[in-house]
Design a protein that fits this description.
The chain is an alpha/beta fold and about 450 residues long. The protein folds into three domains: about 150 residues, Nitrogenase molybdenum iron protein domain (Rossmann fold, 3-Layer(aba) Sandwich), CATH 3.40.50; about 180 residues, Nitrogenase molybdenum iron protein domain (Rossmann fold, 3-Layer(aba) Sandwich); about 35 residues, no CATH class. Helix content is about 45%, strand content about 15%. It contains 18 helices and 13 strands. The strands form three sheets. It has a six-stranded parallel sheet with strand order 1-10-9-8-11-12, with helices on both faces. Helix 2 crosses helix 8, helix 5 packs across helix 7 and helix 8 runs parallel beside helix 9.
Amino acid sequence: MSTPVRLHRLAELSDAETAKLMLREEAELDRYIEPARAIVEAVRTEGDAALARFANEFDKSAVRADDIKAGEAEFEHAFATIEPDVKEAIEFAVANIREFHQRQMPEPMWLHEMRPGAFAGERWLPIPSVAVYVPRGKGSFPSVAMMTAVPATVAGVPQIAMLTPPGPDGRVDAGTLVAARIAGVSDVYKCGGAQAVAAVAYGTATVPRCGKLVGPGSPWVLAGKALLSHLIDPGTPAGPSESIVLADGTANPRLAALDLIIESEHGPDSSAFLVTDSEAVATEAMAAIPGFWQQMGDQRVDFSSTVLGGTRGGVVLAPDWDAAVDFTNAYAPEHLAIHSSQPFEHLGRITNAGEILLGQRTPLTLANFVLGPNAVLPTGGHARNWSPLSVFDFLKSTGIGYVTNEGYKTLAPHAHRLAVYEGFDGHANAVSPTREAAGE
């Protein structure tokens, strides 16, 4: 039985109640840390045997220690069993995602003449290794395989390891394997949760040690990242799904309701709000949601109604548009959809969001799967400071400098003064007449 959608009247909430609306599941990691610590330690000491045991225990999957990596036969089975139209959709999506990320790529190297004879620039190279995480617990996510693997391959990372929990049959989801291969990744490993983080942080006999881990995950994944961030770069903070549909009085309430449901169906740990200053939009959207639930499966309705009927979801009715925008920026959602007859008029006021989708023909579904921009986005309010996953997560830059005699004569006196001021004698000597004497 579904829970009624909750209405939060912003003007009637205390500061503490408003702050509670801002909380996400990932903000409450404490209860996961100690159990995750035991999992991490087991993987560190037992390697593949621990990965197989946890797959049996947590994923109810008959994975053996010698079967952690998906073999070529498993890829062949995936391509043989996946529906042709699904494969076609994956190919369509990968093409768009690849084109978007190719356009992100910086110049491999550039130099600019800062002063006559003094050149400074930058060179970009791929990082040596990365693990990309594809969740599975509440569904199958070939879309995440595409969003994580494509920018890594575009950036040219030489070693890419994909991690994903196995199914009860001991196999990787077929769509995920097909997406991985089409995206250019062949090394796929059957492990999820904190144990997957530990596997690539420490390395096992089968799973390679990697320098970075990207991709969204459950609180267990986040706990593993928190425990192992001294060993592996945990990448963009991407936890349980969250969204805001920001709707003004010109919005279609039924379409706003339809889009509100999108992220709420991921799981009971998701967050999803419709934020509006229109009583009519709020009322009509709430009335429409039960009808849309009737067109969904029981599990997704259960997830969606749990979110929309609790403190991490529902409809937020603001006293005016300024308050609606302020709430949205303070929340800093992973996904933001602006419903309005003139959405571009509101774009300039949004400062914190992982992505902004404009207009009633740009539902989150398109962005999650096929539009092109990356759908691995900062969650938990981290959109205030973090960006979406991009090719830059798989690249590193190096500063480049070259100075001629002419340039040296211009730069050296200024550098000498600063070195003396900061008290560094060796620095100062290196740009003093001592240099000329040493070079004779």
